[in-house]
Amino acid sequence: xxxxxxxxxxxxxxxxxxxxxxxxxxxxxxxxxxxxxxxxxxxxxxxxxxxxxxxxxxxxxxxxxxxxxx
Length: 70
Fold this sequence. Notes:
2 helices
């Protein structure tokens, strides 16, 4: 009985460790997204078009943006 309890305890501990690692990864990803958003917002405040556009893909097209072309 003690062996079964020990194995179950180890399994539970393993699950907790894996869960905590996933949570840490999620927090790192959220912080990276937050930093990117803050950089984009600073570009907007500074009205820096190059900084703002650097966050979009090279083939990005503004919907209904034909009137914005030269």
